[in-house]
């Protein structure tokens, strides 16, 4: 059976899926067609139901839930790993965040949802590829930027400052880890197939932990412009025990995020079940 699988070229995703992509972990009767794209492209594809299995922002899942269940393996979820709101030092004294211009990495990203929760009256919004946001803030094209991924480790090198850790805001508000992105699996697939895919993702991650020397070349292939230490920090921050299994706390965090989105009017319903059993 041929299935499509989409994830981003970010180190946490390529680390998790590297063993599957390179054939180190095989899924007997599944032949994978792998597509790599930036997170917002993946979100848009998922909302259209394009792929069989896909990385997805938990915010975007609200718009794609009729197509997909959520895997209990493969997530980016944790503490101290949330998006940051950044600006230039010159802006600090005069800044009123809810009246300022924001650059966001996509309207379906969890980063944008968290921004909405923190700044409910924000309205000057510019969407751009996440890797362009730092430069836009430096140039003054936007007053604030919401950064994700490896930019968390590089913004200070460009003289920028953080005014809000949105992950810390979420943790203080809920006491729960911040759910950033998960793996969506088509609802129309048989339950046995969904479970097989969920377990294959878990096996792929386990292989990467046991044999990093075999997987890191694949990770590096898609992170050629990234410093090696930044690449490793990225993996260390976004790949953790929740990536292996959401568990009770992880699932509680996902449900809490979706419920908060409902409270601010992003959706009026949540389809049950949410997770692959």
Annotation keywords:
277 residues, alpha/beta, D-Maltodextrin-Binding Protein, domain 2, 2 domains, five-stranded mixed beta sheet, 11 helices, 11 strands, 41% helix
Description:
The chain is of the alpha/beta class. It has two domains: 2-78 and 178-263, Periplasmic binding protein-like II (D-Maltodextrin-Binding Protein, domain 2); 84-174, D-Maltodextrin-Binding Protein, domain 2 (3-Layer(aba) Sandwich), CATH 3.40.190.10. Helices cover 41% and strands 19% of the residues. It has helices at 11-21, 39-47, 58-64, 110-118, 133-139, 166-174, 191-210, 212-221, 228-238, 241-244, 247-263, and strands at residues 2-7, 31-36, 53-57, 68-70, 76-78, 84-87, 101-104, 124-127, 144-147, 161-165, 178-186. Strands 1, 2, 3, 4, 5 and 11 form a six-stranded mixed sheet that branches. Strands 8-7-9-6-10 form a five-stranded mixed sheet, with helices on both faces. Strand 1, helix 1 and strand 2 (31-36) form a beta-alpha-beta unit. It is globular, with a radius of gyration of 18 Å.
